[in-house]
Amino acid sequence: AVELSRHHPMASWLCAMLHCFGSYILADLLLGEPVIDYFSNNSSILLASAVWYLIFFCPLDLFYKCVCFLPVKLVFVAMKEVVRVRKIAVGIHHAHHHYHHGWFIMIATGWVKGSGVTLMSNLEQLLRGVWKPETNEILHMSFPTKASLYGAILFTLQQTRWLPVSKASLIFIFTMFMVSCKVFLTATHSHSSPFDVLEAYVCPVLFGSASGGNHHHNNHGGSQGGSGPGSPHSPLPTKSKEELSEGSRKKKTKKAD
């Protein structure tokens, strides 16, 4: 990132804008609204640009060191989660205004509102001249992405009156959960997720065990491969070698005659 900012400052600035406003861009794209609409907010663009400049070009990296100081960082992390929950709730309310019975549209809009930055990571990599499709966020979801998805489902149920909880109470409860989890993970430098324990029990029941499926396929492939032409235990490769050696001896004998 530092090397990119020195050699390609325009690409670095665009990556920073995607990190700041990626959720708004994806939400506008889903709802058929102008993608560039949020960039009309000049104060937000100038503030994000000022933060980007101070992060990369502040003398002695003072701004970066202050932000990375753990107590200060925890405050910013907590504030970010408060904003994330608010964006999820606002995104679902906005989608509900256009599609009253579109549950999946509301969930998708709330999801990208909460985790649009990580979902646009591949596009951000292209701007940096890097292509790593194996790092797709859909394949390897981080805690904020999973929490945004689960939160979008809860807020959609509340918006459609299927969850008998007031919106203010749900926002407060989910905000406390997100803030406490993210602050704890940041303070302990952990990359795990609080959902891992629950998913370890639920996913094998709903979707089957991945290790068991691989073992079954391996056994099935091994039983076929034992009698196949490419198997190391098959007599066919040995027979073909003997035939080839016998044919070469006959050719040499004919040449000698």
TrEMBL record:
Keywords attached to this entry: Ion channel, Ion transport, Membrane, Nucleus, Potassium, Potassium channel, Potassium transport, Sarcoplasmic reticulum, Transmembrane, Transmembrane helix, Transport
- Please report the organism this UniProt entry assigns to the protein: Muntiacus reevesi
**The UniProt record lists the keyword Phosphoprotein:** no
Q: Which residues cross the membrane?
A: 12-31, 51-76
What does this protein's UniProt record list under function?
A: Intracellular monovalent cation channel required for maintenance of rapid intracellular calcium release. Acts as a potassium counter-ion channel that functions in synchronization with calcium release from intracellular stores. Opened by a change of voltage within the sarcoplasmic reticulum lumen.
Q: Give the molecular function GO annotations.
A: identical protein binding; potassium channel activity
Please report which protein family the annotation says this sequence is part of: Belongs to the TMEM38 family.
- What lineage, starting at the top, does this entry show? Eukaryota, Metazoa, Chordata, Craniata, Vertebrata
The record's note on quaternary structure and interaction partners says: Homotrimer; conformation seems to be controled by binding to diacylglycerol (DAG).
Cite the Pfam families for this sequence.
TRIC
Catalyzes what? K(+)(in) = K(+)(out)
- GO cellular component annotations, sorted alphabetically? nuclear membrane; sarcoplasmic reticulum membrane
Instruction: For the region Disordered, give the residue spans.
Output: 214-257
Compartments where found? Nucleus membrane; Sarcoplasmic reticulum membrane
Q: How does it sit in the membrane?
A: Multi-pass membrane protein
This chain's protein is named Trimeric intracellular cation channel type A
Checking InterPro entries in the record gives: TRIC_channel
Basic and acidic residues: bias regions: 239-248
